[in-house]
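Postdoc handover notes: sequence design on the structure in folder B. Input tokens:
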């Protein structure tokens, strides 16, 4: 990842290579920090207000106070990066241990280069059991404690897939490490319900708004996903990404499906 711009609350824009986090920042020490990622389209962050709301929600669940005017911090970083396509990340940490002075950062960075090639071919995912009964304490919170998420991707890659999908006990499908998961059976789309502790994805909301299909939320087992006509993930960075294999088995005809294509177009039309 190449960092293109960096803004620090209370300091403004700094050189992206400047070290800005203290060694005793609780976000670093304990992984207690909230973050958000959105896409920037030609210098305009997508649904920034909704991401800022979700950041507030995550911070409240983590017991953090959000410094004021993060919208301005984000706007400054985006402006400094220029009118480009990129991702924007916002971080809120409790700051130095015991200081009671939260810190906030806004980063703009380059998008991964291989996303469009992945969208054309479709990705393979592998089920990674979390060994939990949902919902769990921090389900649905976007915290920086993402070690499990990152190691799940490593595990999926080790098994020859591109990405993981988390499974709760009894093979209940949850979400990807950085995505929500969807599948289509006939004219109905299915996605795991928020009550299971999955993240309320902003892209997920866009799919609810734009889908030319019936949409069901619920508790589904892996078998239901395996029997789908097509599947895809949704996230701000990867947008709508077709899934063509799950655990080495083709989904539908093993090719990207029409719902994923239509929803990707609908998402782009809003940007
Ligand atoms: C665990 C998890 N689920 C789902 C998502 C997708 O959310 P969004 O569409 O808001 O990017 C993300 C990415 O932010 C995530 O980290």
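Designed sequence:
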């Amino acid at each position: 990842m190449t960092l293109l711009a960096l803004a620090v609350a209370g300091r403004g824009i700094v050189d992206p290579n400047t070290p800005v986090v203290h060694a005793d920042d609780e976000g670093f020490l304990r992984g207690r920090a909230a973050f958000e990622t959105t896409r920037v389209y030609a210098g305009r962050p997508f649904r920034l207000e909704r991401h800022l709301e979700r950041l507030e929600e995550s911070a409240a669940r983590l017991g953090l106070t959000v410094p004021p005017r993060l919208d301005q911090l984000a706007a400054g970083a985006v402006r400094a990066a220029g009118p480009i396509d990129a991702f924007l990340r916002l971080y809120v940490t409790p700051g130095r241990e015991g200081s009671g002075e939260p810190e906030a950062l806004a980063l703009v960075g380059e998008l991964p280069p291989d996303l469009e090639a992945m969208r054309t071919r479709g990705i393979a995912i592998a089920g990674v059991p979390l060994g939990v009964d949902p919902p769990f304490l921090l389900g649905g919170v976007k915290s920086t404690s993402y070690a499990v998420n990152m190691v799940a991707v490593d595990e999926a890659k080790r098994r020859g897939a591109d990405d993981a999908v988390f499974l709760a006990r009894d093979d209940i499908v949850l979400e990807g490490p950085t995505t929500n998961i969807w599948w289509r059976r006939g004219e109905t789309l299915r996605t795991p319900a928020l009550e299971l502790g999955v993240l309320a994805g902003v892209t997920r909301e866009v799919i609810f708004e734009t889908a030319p299909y019936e949409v069901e939320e619920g508790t589904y087992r892996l078998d239901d996903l395996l029997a789908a006509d097509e599947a895809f993930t949704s996230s701000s960075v990867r947008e709508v990404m077709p899934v063509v294999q799950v655990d080495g088995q083709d989904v539908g005809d093993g090719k990207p499906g029409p719902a994923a294509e239509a929803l990707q177009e609908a998402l782009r039309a809003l940007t």
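Context for whoever picks this up: The longest strand covers residues 34-41. Don't rerun without checking with the PI first.
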